[in-house]
């Protein structure tokens, strides 16, 4: 069953689909009256929706069964200096959504991009990934933030991926808190001064292996490790 996105999704009654979603449902997928489709508000609610056509011309969408899906654990705040190439940014966003990131903050760093970030385009990519992956949670996309301002925010646990020669812990061996901030630098990495400033916030320097990874690849590897780490931890706690 395909999934569609409806930010305002009541528990009962009828809904009016967004124009682009209805166009895809009726023109591309060629759905007809009596068929069901899945709809999410991106905040954990999923609805089974029935297409009704009472007069043969106007489609009405009636909400059926409702399910509520908790967000994946731990809650991950991805803070990343975005790549320069738009295609790589889009790939990064897709994987961040698929791997259950809670929120994303584009970081402005010394070696990172400084031009205007197209948040409208980024949001479209994220919504597309939400639908494709059948996820019920759309990450919050924050405004681009300078590193100094970002570090003023509250972060229960910071995991810092960087390439500077310094003590690091394999990400798969870390004990994770319920909320995690994952920080990944730009092409060319964080500067030594930036790394020092982040580590002063009790951040844990993490290793993603021996190879030097592109920003978007590092995001994928780190998020996958965090998800696997949590699943293994839960499995050890519940021997059944």
Textual characterization of the structure:
This protein is an alpha/beta fold. It has 2 domains: 3-68, Ribosomal Protein L25, Chain P (Beta Barrel); 75-237, SPOUT methyltransferase, trefoil knot domain (Alpha/beta knot, 3-Layer(aba) Sandwich). The chain has 6 helices and 13 strands. The protein has helices at 19-28, 86-98, 119-133, 147-151, 192-199, 215-237; strands spanning 3-5, 14-15, 36-40, 45-52, 60-68, 75-80, 103-108, 140-141, 145-146, 158-161, 169-170, 179-184, 204-207. Strands 6, 7, 8, 9, 10, 11, 12 and 13 form an 8-stranded parallel beta sheet that branches. Strands 1-3-4-5-2 form a 5-stranded mixed beta sheet. Strand 4 and strand 5 (60-68) form a beta hairpin. Helix 2 packs across helix 3 (119-133) and helix 2 runs parallel beside helix 6. The chain is elongated and about 65 Å long. The two termini are 31 Å apart. The mean pLDDT is 90.
In short:
With 240 residues, this protein is α/β, with parallel strands linked by helices. It contains 6 helices and 13 strands.
Tally of discrete structural domains: 2
Give the helices and strands as they follow along the chain: EEHEEEEHEHEEHEEEHEH
Q: CATH architecture of the largest domain, please?
A: 3-Layer(aba) Sandwich
Q: What's the multimeric state?
A: single chain
- Specify the number of helices: 6
Overall mean pLDDT stands at: 90
The share of residues in extended strands comes to 15-25%
Identify low-pLDDT runs. none
Radius of gyration: 20 Å
Give me the CATH superfamily of the largest domain: SPOUT methyltransferase, trefoil knot domain
CATH secondary-structure class of the largest domain? Alpha Beta
Residue share in helix: 25-40%
Structural class: alpha/beta
CATH topology of the largest domain: Alpha/beta knot
N/C terminus separation: 31 Å
What would the principal axes of the Cα set say about the shape?
elongated
Profile the largest sheet: 8 strands, parallel
Extended strand count: 13
């Amino acid at each position: 069953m395909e999934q569609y996105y409806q930010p305002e999704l009541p528990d009962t009654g009828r809904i009016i689909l967004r124009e682009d979603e209805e166009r895809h449902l009726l023109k591309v997928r060629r759905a007809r009256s009596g068929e069901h489709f899945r709809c999410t508000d991106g905040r954990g609610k999923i609805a089974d929706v029935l297409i009704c056509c009472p007069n043969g011309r106007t489609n009405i969408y009636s909400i059926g069964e409702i399910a509520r899906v908790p967000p994946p654990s731990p809650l991950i705040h991805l803070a990343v200096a975005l790549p320069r190439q738009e295609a790589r940014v889009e790939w990064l966003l897709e994987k961040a959504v698929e791997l259950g990131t809670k929120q994303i903050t584009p970081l402005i760093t010394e070696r990172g991009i400084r031009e205007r970030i197209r948040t409208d385009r980024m949001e479209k990519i994220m919504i597309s990934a939400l639908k494709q992956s059948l996820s019920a949670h759309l990450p919050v996309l924050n405004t681009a933030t300078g590193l100094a301002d970002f570090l003023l925010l509250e972060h229960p646990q910071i995991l810092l991926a960087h390439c500077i020669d310094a003590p690091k812990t394999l990400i798969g061996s870390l004990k994770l808190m319920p909320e995690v901030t994952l920080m990944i630098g730009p092409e060319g990495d964080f500067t030594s001064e930036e790394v020092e400033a982040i580590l002063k916030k009790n951040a844990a320097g993490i290793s993603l292996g021996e190879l030097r990874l592109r920003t978007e690849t590092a995001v994928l590897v780190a998020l996958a490790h965090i998800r696997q780490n949590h699943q293994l931890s839960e499995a050890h706690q519940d021997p059944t």
